[in-house]
Amino acid sequence: MVDETNRTDDETTTTCDAETNSLIDVLHLQMLQLMEEHIAQQLALEAHTSTARLILARTRLQQGSLRTATACHLPAYTPYKALCRLVKQGVDWSHSLRLQRLDVNAAKGFLEPVTQIFGSLVPYSLRLASRKWQRCVDQVAECLRVQQELQSVVRAIEQLKWARHRRRNV
Q1: What is the pLDDT of residue 65?
Q2: Which superkingdom heads the taxonomic lineage of this protein's source (predicted)?
Q3: What is the pLDDT of residues 31-41, one digit of tens each?
Q4: 44 vs 49: CA distance, rounded Å
């Protein structure tokens, strides 16, 4: 009778270990896919950032003076509120991030930085650079989402390995 109970426990442990191992394998594959996606997102972010920097540098060169330096034109007394916010949404055990874009509203303190600093006649290159920086913000939010997914997969793998280790040593 004792031999049958031991065999059943061994078979259950073996089956459970096999299921845990296959789940860990699936999570490792998902982790590799997320790593690849994260690297692609970072490369895209670097490309957008370098393009925006190049446009700003070209604008400064074309202007030929320090008038394009934003430090000269920022009023010290006007507070600026961010037009973008990264908002967590979801429940305690799982949440996602969403980029919330707010409308330009001077009454509430939400101002368009480019027109506020340079006036209503903003050069096209500055408007283009501003749009590129907005894309960079979108890309940063996407990178953060992928990075958080990757971290949750790594935590799940660690928890499964710990559970498997505990099961073997009990």
Answers
A1: 57
A2: Eukaryota
A3: 999 999 999 99
A4: 9
